[in-house]
From TrEMBL:
PROSITE patterns tied to this protein: ANNEXIN_1 (PS00223), ANNEXIN_2 (PS51897)
CC terms in the record's Gene Ontology section: nucleus; plasma membrane; zymogen granule membrane
PANTHER family: ANNEXIN, ANNEXIN A4
Membrane topology: Peripheral membrane protein
Domain-level remarks: A pair of annexin repeats may form one binding site for calcium and phospholipid.
Protein name: Annexin
Keywords noted in UniProt: Acetylation, Annexin, Calcium, Calcium/phospholipid-binding, Cytoplasmic vesicle, Membrane, Phosphoprotein, Repeat
Compartment(s) of residence: Zymogen granule membrane
Membrane-spanning ranges: none
Family of this protein: Belongs to the annexin family.
Gene Ontology MF: a single term: phosphatidylserine binding
Organism: Cyprinus carpio carpio
């Protein structure tokens, strides 16, 4: 059977099977067709191939495609796809630090700043992940991520983000009981116990101490103040500063629950915040999505899949 006698669906299957076969066998392949012939009316096939493979496997597919047709797969995908489907597919083709750096750059460049994106990423990544993001951002943009963040933010919100970008959180698991009690007292005296709020004290404790220690601090804070630390942050702060401190605390307590809540809030109400939905689904796919799905079900009594499908066809019709 010659290529020119195949219908479009058969061409897609043949093309994809050749790419996947080459990846699996580590063979060189030749191909006569551009991606325009391959992906026209073939979103389902793209999903089948990309969504069911790991990031590492998708990188091999990118390499095989470039070898076979002499073009970058992502560039061709961008030229042929549109809307949310394009954003998801392009995101899936990026390694984690590249995707995070890409999202951060988009959050900063142009008119206005997407503070929610900065918070979602910078408040939730580990020291090692942060260092990779910073290096990747520099490589991809020839700019310092810290400089760009400082150029687009200000005040105490900026200082919290800069602190997070140092990737300097204590990585030990040690809990200093005396220090935990003192930290809880310091936060209480910096907020609930005084007129006005000393945000620097919150920064010093929440951005520096290790997770186990901070969980103990939160317990002590509850004893001292009679409030959960999250409630006090809501009472004492507002705007982006409130949002970033809440994100830090929630990620320390239960990161999958934090992302489950972000997904829920991105879909509830009259409209869908597609950028948040896409960013979390792509970024967490191979990290903790199973845990996020479990937390979502526990928190909202519905599966994440069913919640996305109801009223959000702009996102789910292709993914």
């Amino acid at each position: 059977m010659q290529f020119n006698t195949l219908n479009k669906s058969e061409l897609v299957i043949l093309k994809v099977s050749k790419i996947v076969h080459a990846v699996q066998k580590n063979e060189a392949i030749s191909c006569r067709f551009t991606i325009k012939h391959v992906i026209k009316h073939t979103n389902a096939t793209i999903i089948e191939i990309l969504a069911h493979r790991t990031i590492a496997q998708r990188q091999k597919i990118k390499e095989a495609y470039k070898q076979s047709v002499g073009k970058e797969l992502v560039d061709n995908l961008k030229s042929e796809l549109t809307g949310n489907f394009e954003k998801v597919v392009v995101g899936l083709m990026m390694p984690a630090p590249v995707y995070d750096a890409y999202e951060l750059r988009n959050a900063i460049k142009g008119a206005g700043t997407d503070e929610a994106c900065l918070i979602d990423i910078l408040a939730s990544r580990s020291n090692a992940e942060m260092k990779e993001i910073i290096a990747t951002y520099k490589k991809e943009n020839d700019k310092s991520l810290e400089d760009d963040v400082c150029g687009d933010t200000s005040g105490m919100f900026q200082r919290v983000l800069v602190s997070l970008l140092t990737a300097g959180r204590d990585q030990s698991t040690k809990v200093d009981e005396a220090q935990a009690v003192q930290d809880a007292k310091d936060i209480y005296e910096a907020g609930e116990a005084r007129w006005g709020t000393d945000e620097v004290k919150f920064l010093t404790v929440l951005c520096v101490r290790n997770r186990n220690h901070l969980l103990r601090v939160f317990q002590e804070y509850q004893k001292i103040s009679g409030r959960d630390i999250e409630d006090s942050i809501k009472r004492e702060m507002s705007g982006c500063l409130e949002d970033v401190f809440l994100a830090i605390v929630k990620c320390l307590k239960n990161k999958p629950a934090f992302f489950a809540e972000r997904l829920y809030k991105s879909m509830k109400g009259l409209g869908t915040t597609d950028s948040v939905l896409i960013r979390i689904m792509v970024a967490r796919a191979e990290i903790d999505m199973l845990d996020i799905k479990a937390e979502f079900l526990k928190m909202y009594g519905k599966t994440l899949e069913s919640f996305i499908k109801v009223g959000h066809s702009c996102f789910t019709e292709n993914m």
